[in-house]
Amino acid sequence: MTAYHELFADRFARLRIGSAGIRTPARRPVINPATGAAFASVPLAAPEHLESAVAAARAAFPAWRALPWEERQARLEGLAGRMAQARGELADLLTLEQGKPRHSAAAAEVDYAIGWLREVAGRRLADEVLEDAPQHRVEKSYVPLGVAGLIVPWNFPLCLAAWKFAPALITGNTVILKPSPYTPLTALRLAELAEDVLPPGVFTVLTGDDELGQWMVDHPGIAKISFTGSVATGRRVMAGAAAGLKRVTLELGGNDPAIVLPDADLDACIPKLFWGAFGNSGQWCVGIKRLYVHDDIYPQLLDGLVAYARGVRMGDGMDPASQLGPLQNARQYEKVLGILADCAERGLRIALGGGAALGPGYFVPVTIVDNPPDDSRVVAEEAFGPVLPVLRYRDFDDVVRRANDTEYGLGASIWGRDTALAEALADRLEAGTVWINEVYVHGVDFPFGGHKLSGLGVEHGAEGLAAYANLKIRMTAR
């Protein structure tokens, strides 16, 4: 038994439902991806636990929705304060269960989630008078849906949880949050912190296997599902929600292109391109997945990207020197190795990396593939790992066609000094967000959603808040 296992053996022994602590007969181990070994275990919720959580959330809903917006804001700011007090512990848990470096990426994710919660707490859906005429007055308002079921993935367990629960709570809904079974600990700690500032039943975390997500989708007492994850699971969520016309928001996969124009400032953009592709070890939905580089600058950019990558250290996230961590789980590790095996079988040129790293854990070194064909797996599939195809292009019309030749449409980026050209190309890309000379920058007030199979609905902004509410029109005759 490892020291970490001894520390966490009984740390999260119970589900907190309402004001009760419940032990479950079944538990699931939590794996440290840097070692491949279990260091903790968590309760597995059964159908009866979901029933209890829904009952508690429904019971808490009338009083929570009736609170003035300012009171809900104060409660959420209180939760942000409790998270800030537990910042170091949350970052430790995040690194142990997810793998990202403790002193950079994990700490940044905790701070990001705290800041996001505070920012969203200050937003509101304002009532509006649509018409004030002699014959009638027409007013628009928003009312909360009820119980929101939030299903969060393993790549950004805390950040993406905050993206969902903050708007759900501030708009007057109660919440049942299901973290990924791979990364449940930060969510369970978050639930403990929430007990200090939120009434029982307002915010519940249930840990469980994949079946729990389906039970939530099927449950008639849950009014809304917000899901981030794969297209395959998103389809099942949408199909299940259709039976009860349950509201859904789906943020799914992406195979995001980046297009580097011939006039790009390589010194400025190479670091951003690297971290846009390889940050979080490539495990982010809107990371750069395909890098298209104009022929005129292709050799210089490829050489510069490889040189930059050689200076980045990958290792155990608890090592302060580590800048990148492992892949999060064995299943994802095997998928990425399968894509690298396809590169080897095709005889593709590997400019850097390739294969699995030595030692324990789910480490795959940063890998850059030099101009693979468009039908290779490394181009056509979303690797969701530290593997990047760098692709040549000559013609702008052709690169737009190739960039759009995917079933996904989450994000894209264009890099170059000629912003007029970049903006013209951006308008032709089939993506929910197109960044120019930047990537993966989000804001509380900027709606975020995907085109094509990358999702349904949006998060953030007024539109994201409205996704947790029903629109209501009141017309008064005079």
Automatic annotation (TrEMBL):
Q: Which PROSITE patterns match?
A: ALDEHYDE_DEHYDR_CYS, ALDEHYDE_DEHYDR_GLU
What InterPro entries does this protein's entry cite?
Ald_DH/histidinol_DH (IPR016161), Ald_DH_C (IPR016163), Ald_DH_CS_CYS (IPR016160), Ald_DH_CS_GLU (IPR029510), Ald_DH_N (IPR016162), Aldehyde_DH_dom (IPR015590), LUC3-like (IPR044086)
Q: Which Pfam families match?
A: Aldedh
Provide the active-site residues from the annotation. Answer: E251
Aldehyde dehydrogenase domain spans which residues?
28-472
| Recorded superkingdom | Bacteria
UniProt xrefs under CDD domains:
ALDH_AldA-AAD23400
Molecular function, one GO term: oxidoreductase activity, acting on the aldehyde or oxo group of donors, NAD or NADP as acceptor
Report keywords, A-Z. Answer: Oxidoreductase
**Family per record:** Belongs to the aldehyde dehydrogenase family.
Q: What is this protein called?
A: Aldehyde dehydrogenase family protein
Taxonomic source organism: Pseudothauera rhizosphaerae
